[in-house]
Design brief:
The complex is a heterodimer of chains A (about 300) and B (about 160).
Chain A lengths: L2 H11 L2 E2 L1 H21 L2 H4 L12 H5 L7 H19 L4 H20 L9 H11 L12 E2 H29 L8 H9 L11 H17 L2 H4 L4 H22 L4 H7 L10 H12 L8 H5 L9
Antiparallel strand pairs in A: 1-2
Helix pairs in contact in A: 2-5, 2-7, 2-13, 5-6, 6-7, 7-8, 7-13, 8-10
Chain B lengths: L6 E2 L3 H24 L21 E12 L4 E3 L2 H4 L3 H6 L1 H6 L5 H10 L6 E14 L2 E15 L6
Antiparallel strand pairs in B: 2-3, 2-4, 4-5
The chains are: A mainly alpha (about 300), B alpha+beta (about 160).
């Protein structure tokens, strides 16, 4: 194998432990359960909108998708929530994963077909799609590694990075090169500022500086993909991205929540094993009688004869 | 331990297919960034807050207000109608061109709140803040951009 093929191979197919699949399935289902009532409650409210306000997207005009009404919206939500449960807990996750993906896609059409398209869900939709193609998995499994899973999460990661990187290019396209020198953050804070951001209106130069910082940061995000060999660097960058979203949420109450759930696939979630954690907690509560030594209980259950 | 393979790999053909899939997704979402529009969802340009706003001029904030049968005036929010401010703005040119479409927002409110008094008037109002050199001057104007009143109602 020459260097290029090896590089391509490592980039797309670095094996990932199956435990991460179980964790991401749980998170994906959890988000779906949170979204409809806490994060985007207006989507279910769309069941009350008259058809005249429906502005179908291209895909809604090509495919024979009917205009949403009371029962279509309600029914879609019921299917989404019902199929998310078995996915979350790993029961026939592929079958229910496909049902969830298709129903959730219709849910996204109901969401985005009334005159405004949001851009926070791209990575999450890719996540739901690749989860359908991944094998059954259990929490905390660091034994079994899969290159297919590695490819799937790599695609989600590419989608997550596109959400930043390409949004810088969209700013050049729609806002022009003068975007960074314009009053866009002032405008954003006037529209949806909070106690944490309203004071910034007094300092337009600072906001312009932040706009330059934003462009630079978005253009640099592909680094998080390139450093996949150096996991600690990668985790640090992902931590920075989460912090960025906390700041944006404090300033403008824009949270990009589905994007944040999708981004979790960068993290070594296979290290979380709820059963082991429960056992440990129980052992601690029952007064540590007959406890194994502490560091032994914290080490991984390695099968004999493997290194 | 069962005889499951500890590492599952992908055959060369499978690899080629998968790399192609990744590249197609990347190509589509990149292409729509430069030549596409929201219409191509899910491959839409990531254009949140991508427009330039003048440092000298007006920064606008849109809202919808309604008057009900009892003469009470109130804001029609997302929670009241299920129709978001961004959606109002997205379809604003339609509403300005044909204000009678605002009746559908009243309908959405009445569907959501069947027990509340019906709406006789809907207005789209933009509040505009004057900016000079990026600073708010304190000058604010309000413009009613579109109005609909139910026929026969004395508004």
């Amino acid at each position: 194998m020459n260097r290029l093929t090896r590089g391509v191979n490592d980039f797309f197919f670095t094996p990932v432990p199956l435990g991460r699949v179980a964790a991401m399935r749980f998170l994906a289902g959890l988000f779906v359960w949170i979204e409809w009532w806490a994060y985007k409650p207006f989507i279910i409210q769309h069941r009350f909108l008259p058809e005249d306000l429906y502005q179908p997207l291209l895909i809604g005009r090509i495919l024979p998708i009917p205009a949403p009404n009371y029962w279509i919206v309600t029914g879609t939500l019921v299917v989404v929530l019902a199929s998310a449960l078995p996915v979350m807990f790993g029961y026939r996750p592929r079958l229910f994963g496909w049902i969830l993906f298709i129903a959730y896609f219709e849910w996204m059409l109901i969401y985005n077909s009334y005159g405004k398209v949001d851009h926070a869900s791209f990575g999450f939709m890719v996540l739901l799609l690749v989860l359908c193609m991944m094998p059954e998995a259990r929490w905390g499994d660091r034994e079994h590694l899969s290159a297919r899973v590695g490819w799937g999460f790599n695609l989600v990661q590419i989608a997550v990075v596109c959400t930043y990187f390409l949004s810088a290019w969209a700013k050049f396209r729609y806002g022009g090169l003068e975007w960074a020198n314009s009053g866009v953050f002032t405008w954003a804070i006037i529209r949806r500022g909070t106690v944490f951001s309203d004071w910034l209106l007094e300092f337009p130069a600072l906001l312009q500086f932040a706009q330059w910082g934003m462009i630079a940061f978005e253009l640099l995000t592909p680094i998080v993909l390139i450093v996949y060999r150096w996991k600690k660097v990668q985790y640090a960058i992902v931590a920075f991205l989460y912090c960025f979203h906390i700041v944006v949420f404090a300033a403008l109450t824009i949270s990009f929540l589905p994007h944040l759930f999708a981004m979790a696939c960068f993290l070594p979630l296979e290290r979380i094993d709820p059963r082991a954690l429960a056992r440990k907690a129980k052992a601690r509560l029952t007064g540590r009688k007959g406890d194994p030594p502490r560091d032994a209980s914290e080490s991984e259950p390695e099968p004999a004869g493997t290194a | 331990m069962p005889d499951e393979p500890r590492l599952s790999t992908v055959r060369p053909v499978g690899k080629a297919v998968r790399i192609t899939v990744s590249m197609v997704v990347l190509a589509l979402v990149t292409a729509t960034t430069f030549w596409g529009a929201d219409d191509f969802f899910p491959f839409a340009p990531f254009k949140m807050y991508s427009f330039s706003k003048e440092l000298d001029g007006w920064a606008g904030s849109t809202r919808v207000e309604a008057v009900n049968e009892e003469g009470e005036r109130f804001r029609l929010t997302e929670a009241g109608t299920g129709f978001r401010r961004a959606e109002v703005e997205g379809q604003k040119s339609r509403f300005i061109e044909d204000p009678s479409l605002l009746e559908h927002i009243a309908e959405a409110y009445e569907n959501t709140n069947p027990d509340k008094p019906e709406i006789v008037t809907v207005e789209i109002i933009e509040r505009r803040y004057r900016l000079e050199d990026g600073y708010q001057t304190g000058e604010v104007i309000e413009v009613v951009e579109a109005t609909w009143t139910r026929e026969g109602a004395d508004a």
